[in-house]
Amino acid sequence: MPLPLVFIVSPALAQANNGNWQTAWRWSRLLAGHYRTRIVQHWQPGAPDEAVAMLALHARRSADSIAAWAQACPGRGLAVVLTGTDLYRDIHEDAAAKRSLAQAQQLVVLQEEGPRELPEPYRAKTRVLFQSTTERRVLPKTDQHLRAVMVGHLREEKSPQTLYEAARLLRERPDIHLDHIGDALDPALGVQARATMAECPHYRWLGGLDHEATRRRIQRAHLLIHCSRMEGGAHVLMEAVCSGTPVLASRIPGNVGMLGADYPAYFPWGDAAALAALLKQCREGIGSGASMLTRLQAKCRLRAPLFAPAAEQAGLLALLQDLTP
Hints:
By secondary structure, the protein is of the alpha/beta class. The chain contains 12 helices and 12 strands. It has a 6-stranded parallel β-sheet, with helices on both faces. Strands 9-8-7-10-11-12 form a 6-stranded parallel β-sheet, sandwiched between helices.
């Protein structure tokens, strides 16, 4: 007897190589052996009707598929997964996103601060499901300089201007190196990245890299920088934590929900001076057991089990069991 079929609706497919695609692809692998899965960008009636459930990523961008499923398959399992821009913007402003909340049998948020953003009537059907990544060996790092890497396509939500400004503030610090990975989805931000490179010899914009190359860069860095204005639960944070690479992050709910309220290396969103000060602080005492970097690594080790693949798989299977009694 064939395994039950689950549709995973993702606004982006493999060519985009972004967070939604990474989630969809990983879930398809974690569910293998328990469910058949099919990843689609859009779902329409007429697709194989033996499917038992739909997991839809993004309340607004997948709204048409969510509405079509709710109408064509009443009573069948429907979970809507709230990512960054829909959790922190669209569900408050967009009618289609609001409709998705009402149509879902279950709502999923990707970090522990997420439920607070939802209207009170929806919180009872909301669960937290941390995403996961494989653990990487912690690599030895040089004590001759500090290397920090920022990962994220160049677009407004990622706030790359904060890194540009911090690079300028650190122009006279050749012992602090800044690498920046991501495609220029906003061409104007790419122009700014090139201008920053010209002015600041220790800032490098590397453009877009594939996932494995990016993970190796994170693994080799002393720090990951995460400047975002809004996030639903960034992959790159867990990839850094599970590589033993501490994070300097903007204090926004999506980052606090991943790293914990007591994490000691947040900076106010958009505050380049505060980011530069943290980088200087982390540079001091590299190689000593009492450095800030060492303390941050210890915090990350405590957080890493939340992002284990076995924990995410158990959460997914529990979700589908509730959707398909």
